[in-house]
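May I ask for a protein sequence together with how it folds?
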Amino acid sequence: MDSSVSHKTRKMEVLPLLFSFRGRIGRIQFTKWWLPLTLITLPLYYLNEQLAGIVTILLLWPLFALTTKRYHDFNSFGWLGIFQLLPIIGWLIVIVGCCFTVGDFKDNKYGKSLYK
């Protein structure tokens, strides 16, 4: 992608975004995908706990992929995404760390800066 393109218009395709652990994403793109994927199972638990459990398991890969790329944006290793498995406290860690923390303004080992 041309480096003159602003970070606001730079978007990753959906499949690599949800299934690849490579690269970086910004906090807006992370929040736009992670929050709905996380909250989609809440109403299901009231309707059918078994179905909600299956949907949760199916969503683990995309949630970890998003979180890993977000941690890569501030030059950290993606294994920190494991915190999202902890109910409530883990979600708070991910929300504060990934939705409100500004990424690294420089290129890092995970990819080019999103903020050029």
About this structure: The radius of gyration is 15 Å. Confidence is low (pLDDT under 50) at residues 1-9. The CA atoms of residues 23 and 110 lie 6 Å apart. DSSP finds five helices and no strands in the chain.
